[in-house]
Design goal:
Elements lengths: L1 E11 L5 E6 L2 E3 L3 E5 L6 H8 L7 E6 L2 E3 L3 H4 L3 E4 L11 H10 L9 H11 L15 H11 L7 E5 L7 H16 L3 E6 L2 H7 L2 E6 L2 E7 H5 L5 E6 L2 H10 L6 E3 L17 E6 L5 H10 L4 E7 L3 H9 L6
Parallel strand pairs: 4-9, 4-10, 7-8, 8-9
Antiparallel strand pairs: 1-2, 1-3, 1-5, 5-6, 10-11, 12-14, 12-15, 13-14
């Protein structure tokens, strides 16, 4: 089952700009789905179409199995959302703001309003600040209040657009912990972001956008498997090491320098060390190390490394993520 699904979802603005180009989302129920991409890649436009705030020029979308935007009245009361930052009355308290928000929901029972508001505030850690005016809230508190508005009713899906945007490290941790808590309660969380650290810590699945197109979708382990594992040898004779790696049939054998020194073609014994590396493929690391030693190459360090998330995302989207 999918909490969010789209087929060929497309949005072209009147000026001709193609903001979202045939996007096919499949967000599993119960997942924390990171919707990623550089600023301007089409994330917010996609979210607005999912919620019926913008109309697609092509394709279709469904929330919890209900087509959007035609089924908005049937399904949106089961969905909480935060799009493009919180919007509350600055002169009202957090409690009063939520009361107004709740009163606007025609499906909410007014008799249980106060209980539900207190529960929502407590869930985001703002019950003690319920009677504090919104304008005196920190940025992190404002974001948490906005999320609490989406939790006034039991929700099966929460959609958050850049929930940690502009927050300091403490505010970011607060919102991140809240997302984990919401997910632990069984709610599907769909969170857009351009922050890789955020994704790595809280998400189970990811979709990566680039220039309006979805260039990857799957679980984090699946994403990691898209990168080539490399074997790296630290030695005083990197040229000879590259020859051995090439003779073993390892692709992309080359000399690479440690971060604190420029690339080297060779290093005289006693003068320092450089690194030779190649794509591991199906070769056994033990055999590679043995062949290097038998060839008379002094192996100071030997490692098998996978690309970082930063490397993978930059490979998918180009330079543009806040890493």
């Amino acid at each position: 089952m999918t909490a969010i699904s789209t087929s060929g979802l497309t949005k072209r603005f009147r000026g001709g700009q193609l903001a979202v180009d045939h996007v096919d989302l499949a967000v599993p129920e119960g997942s924390v789905y990171g919707f990623l991409g550089p600023n301007g890649s089409g994330k917010t436009t996609t979210i607005r179409m999912l919620l019926g705030l913008a109309f697609p020029t092509g394709g279709s979308a469904a929330l919890l199995g209900v087509g959007m935007p035609d089924g908005a009245t049937q399904v949106l009361h089961r969905v909480g959302s935060l799009v493009e930052g919180p919007a509350f009355y600055p002169f009202l308290t957090g409690l009063d703001n939520l009361a107004r928000y709740d009163a606007a929901d025609r499906t909410a029972d007014p008799r249980t309003a106060r209980t539900r508001i207190d529960t929502a505030l407590d869930r985001v850690g703002l019950l003690s600040a319920a009677k504090k005016r919104y304008r005196h809230y920190s940025l992190g508190m404002k974001q948490r209040l906005a999320i609490s508005a989406g939790l006034l009713r039991p929700r099966e899906l929460i959609i958050l657009d850049e929930p940690t945007n502009g927050l300091d490290p403490q505010g970011t941790r607060e919102v991140r912990a809240l997302i984990r808590q919401i997910a632990a309660d069984g709610t599907t969380v769909f969170v857009s972001s351009h922050l890789l650290a955020e994704v790595e810590q809280i998400c189970t699945h990811v979709g990566v956008m680039r220039s309006g197109r979805l260039v990857f979708q799957g679980s984090l382990p699946e994403l990691r498997r898209t990168g080539a594992v490399r074997v790296t040898v630290q030695t005083a004779d990197p040229e000879a090491a590259v020859k051995v790696l090439t003779a073993l049939g390892l692709p992309d054998a080359r000399i690479s320098a440690p971060p604190d020194r420029p690339p080297a073609t060779a290093v005289e014994p006693g003068q320092g060390f450089a690194e030779a590396s190649a794509v591991l493929g199906d070769a056994a690391p033990e055999r590679i190390c043995a062949e290097l030693v038998q060839a008379g190459i002094g192996v100071r360090g030997f490692a098998v490394t996978s690309p970082s998330l930063e490397d993978l995302f930059v490979g998918l989207t180009g330079e543009g993520f806040d890493v």
